[in-house]
Amino acid sequence: MTPQEKVKINKLPTGVPGLDDILGGGLPEYSFNILAGSPGCGKTTLAHQFVFANATPEHPAIYFTVLGEPALKMLRYQQQYSFFDLSKLNNCVRFINLSQVLVERGLKGILEEITREVEATTPGIVVVDSFRTVVRHADQKEMEMQVFVQNLGLLLTSWQATTFLIGEYAESEVRDNPVFTVADGLFWLYQAVERNSVVRKMQILKLRGQGSVPGMHTFRITDSGLQAFSRTLGLSEHISRNVRSTKVLSTGVPELDAMMGGGIPEGDSLLIAGSSGTGKSLLATHFIDAGLRQGEPGIIAVFEERPEEYVERATSFGLDLRTPVERGNLQVIYLRPLDLSVDETMQAIFDAIKTTGAKRLVIDSLAGFEMALSPGFRADFRESLYRMIYSLTALGITILSTVEMEESFTELLFSTYSISFLTDDILRLRYVEIEGQLRKIVMVVKKRGGNHSKDIREYEITSRGFVLGQRLENYDGLITGIPPRAGTK
Predict the structure, then answer these.
(1) Most buried by CB count within 10 Å: which residue of 57, 65, 300, 439?
(2) CA geometry: angle at 220 spanning 181 and 205, to 5°?
(3) Mean of the per-residue pLDDT values of the chain
(4) Rounded Cα–Cα distance for residues 284 and 300 (Å)
């Protein structure tokens, strides 16, 4: 190798969806890594996902347990995850319990036993779980511990093994700890209870040789194991609109298209604001239906009712969503409420976009979206929503979001979230009281980059859906909600 040549470091897939992107492409091969965190945060499961994703007969994995818990008990629970491959046991993955060795022979015995197994097997992956048990056994002998860790790291690196040491550490122990100094990679997993929700996050504190995404990233443990959600999800997408599209999409209501100067520019974010019962969800359904009629797949993210109820309600207005759902042209996403993160929602939407090729997205509603989040994520809702809308519209996705407003008869509000700056276009629906009747009006408040009608028009919700009426000309102060007849002030 000449001085000008660089050593190429291969990157191994972690087996955890989303984590490779956070790491910058995967885990460096032959790296010496520490996986730390409190009990129950997913350390062992993450290690197992990596092992089963990479172990082969040619490059097997050895999983050393230094816990009192036998491997059989651990495997009983790990087999419940879908990533677990029973056919790889003993052939590609071996589990060896060293708890008795630690008691009888100490650190020296542990190192000798690991050395013997590594030399006999020549594994590609080595895991020591729980390494913290070894650390505690050192009984404050820091120099002995440092020598042990350095020798272990040298051994496994010289045998070209990718290594995970798993331990239960407090965050305060990061400083001046010889274990962490030697490590090439340091992964920290956290879990916290926020009111009645459990939130799990991970941080890559150290990763030699490549740029990982800094900061805290949320993750979830499901039947498939861990799934990670990068805090920069979407912003790293390389597909973007270099030239703004000139295509205009229909709202599904021709008269409303005319009010908007032809329709919604492709790639815009449209906000429909109004109080309960004004027809926000109905307009959203018209928008998706119009796309489906043109052969454009769509996605609806709902937070306040289940997909079956949403589809059935559309049928009552003569709009068929059931058929495109069955054909795969429409996905109605319903995410588990009360402990979501915005990143998790974005991942579900990105996955649906890749599956369907959708160009139209409905978020119904922002109020329900916020309530579905864990309490800790609600504080950053506005910033996260900006990132989400920016990422999706950059891909050419046209977004229609609904937001519920408390009706005021003294002023016209546009958004309870102060997010109107995030949207390109705004439609405002509201009630007005005219001659003892509660009636509905619609107006185009904003259309970025184009002209729109200034009219305020009445509309009705009928069995045919959203039906736009005439301009209301004989009243003053319509937006106040209690308009007098013109000339009667």
Answers:
(1) 300
(2) 15
(3) 85
(4) 9
Q: DSSP label at 411?
A: -
Q: Give tens-digit pLDDT for 436-467.
A: 788 999 999 999 878 999 999 999 999 999 99
The 10 Å Cβ neighbour count of residue 97 is: 18
SS3 121: helix
DSSP for 7-29, written as a single string: ----EE--SSTTHHHHHTSSEET
Distance CA 373, CA 353 (A): 22
pLDDT in tens, 158-202: 888 999 989 887 666 665 666 677 889 999 999 887 666 778 899
d(CA 172, CA 413): 48
Closest CA to 294 of 247, 334, 244, 261: 247
Q: Give dist(CA 74, CA 89) in Å, integer.
A: 13
Exposure pattern of 234-262 as b/e (b: 16+ CB <10 Å)? beeeeeeeeeeeeebbbbbbebbbebbbe
Q: CA 252, CA 286: separation in Å to the nearest integer?
A: 5
* 3-state DSSP percent of the chain in helix, strand and coil, to 5: 35, 30, 40
Buried b (16+ CB within 10 A) or exposed e, 135-172: beebeeeeeebbebbeebbebbeebebbbbbbbbbeee
